Model the fold of this input.
Amino acid sequence: MKKMSVKTLLLSAVLCFAISVLILPGAWAESTWKIGGIFAVTGPASFLGDPEKKSMEMIVETINKNGGIDGRPLEAVIYDTEADPTKAVMAVSKLINRDKVMAIIGPSTTPTSLAVIPGAQRAGIPLISCAAGNGITQPIKPWIFKTAQSDIHAVAAIYNHMKKMGHTKVGIITVSNAFGESGKEQLESQAPDFGITVVRAENFGAKDTDMTAQLTKIRGEKPDAIVCWGTNPGPAVVSRNARQLNIDIPLYQSHGVASPKFIDLAGEAAEGILLPTGKILVADLLPDDDPQKPVLKTYIRQFQEKYNSPVSGFGGYAYDGVRILADAIKGTGGDLAKIREKIESTRDHVGVSGTFNFSPEDHNGLDPSAFVMVRIENGTWKLVE
Amino acid sequence: MEFLQYLFSGITSGAIYAVIAVGFSMLYSATDLINFAHGEFVMLGALCLVTMKAIGMPLPIAFLNAVLIVGLIGLIFERLAIRPVKRPQPIVLVIITVGASIFFRGMAMILWGKDTYSVPPFSDHPPIIISGAALLPQSLWILFIVLAVVACLYLFYQKTLTGKAMQACAISKKAAWLMGIPAKWMVSLSFLLSAAMGAVAGVIIAPITMCSYDMGTMLGLKGFCAAMLGGLGSLWGALLGGFLLGILEAMGVGFFSSSIKDAIAFLLLLFILYVRPGGIIGAVQAKRF
Done:
């Protein structure tokens, strides 16, 4: 029995060695660069994951059409997380252990991203998340990056606008999940920097159907403006309820609802709502000297041609992620540590979501200029100065 | 003013819970079965309405069609999934309904996609302001339709032969069968009615909540909670439970914290079940068998 176990031990040691040799840089036997994608393609966050998956497939196809990276094509392995942290963790371990990918794009949501970070860190694989939550890249984890604009910047954009308008007291209403919690934290911590006080903070469940009680409570404090932080359909209900209660102070929404679907759901009640958004929603309205304009135009045209459906702001996170990764892979021969370093030293990368300047202190690489404030007028977006 | 606003908000959601609870209760009294797929009937009703309106039907016709279609789905569900069960122990049947609810949700996801749909309110009036609190016209519609449906149901049970036969089945299936009442038919009928009630709930709340394939689960649970509160098997208990739950939820949000909204519902349920295991009204009926 003892002999057996020694034998097994030896055998497994040899196996381990063989495997490690196989995955050592330079020893890649395959002729493709294999990268993984994990998105919430179905489930409650499918509005994020679906365009992300499509965008990733699209950009991979484009890169391969143009000769791949260093002569080798990219290959994308994409799994669905259904926005479920458990499934996301399983998908990551499948990508690392079975598919042997060299980097991962995704997941789509903050809770799933936070769940998969330890796995990617342990395996030492670059992961470029597509979620907005701040906790993903703060504190800095060597292997973790993200391309979605942070809540910090969205909150800064909103408060900047409020400061200009002279609002000093705000009521906030946030969804009770990781996205809302992170927004609430930023709204509360940044308020003093702009001379703003949060007079009341309320929350609502992601599936709640009536928020009049919360809004009534906020109205009781007589704020100058209300900020709602959530993803559809909650904020649409909040907008409708605010309209029904005849609340006539400005209502700000987060970038989480920056898609035509929100206008569709909130209908008449969407009129006059202010929100920060990536520039993609207003690409046509941007001044011609905006560096992002050509990138946005190309992305929108490609997406609409390929999928024959309107773009949302979300697919761009995966699109940017793959492009940054592709640039980083160039000339590294597949050395993961080198790829990581190259991502970290990416400067002035003009993407769909903003201009990226990564550094060892900043794994998101964006600043508040990635956002513009828009107002909903006549069922469409208008740039706000 | 604030109190009144919370009350209005509570009555609106309470009416929704009530009509869902009535569906639960009705089926339970006729078949002894708790149908965990009931929330999905609510969802199907709402989504059917979306489709009917999308193909251009006027609201009343779309309403009737949605209710009829879901009623038929309920009937088919009973024929295909419940009746063929060889040894219909309660636990087996309950698990079948849980499975069915997952099936309905999956089918709805395939048919309608994962998007959320919005439906315009039934009438386009501005909110009515009563001493500073806004009451939505849709809330009045909901209240009116719920009360009308319950009144019809009451008359049906009290005045028609079929209704009385159903009640007889509820009291004792065997005795009713011996009296020549087609008990199996009554079970089918109660499935049809219960599913239709679910659809009514779905249709009337669609303009308030917006609809998606996954809206049914939480609504079903809240409705179940309301039915238990009032006393399973009792029509008036279900109504009372629904309104009580809705109003307490709104008050809880208003006077305590919005983060404990769902906790209130389930804490209340635990408390009532501890003090009065049969529910507020249903204590006597609960000992029926």
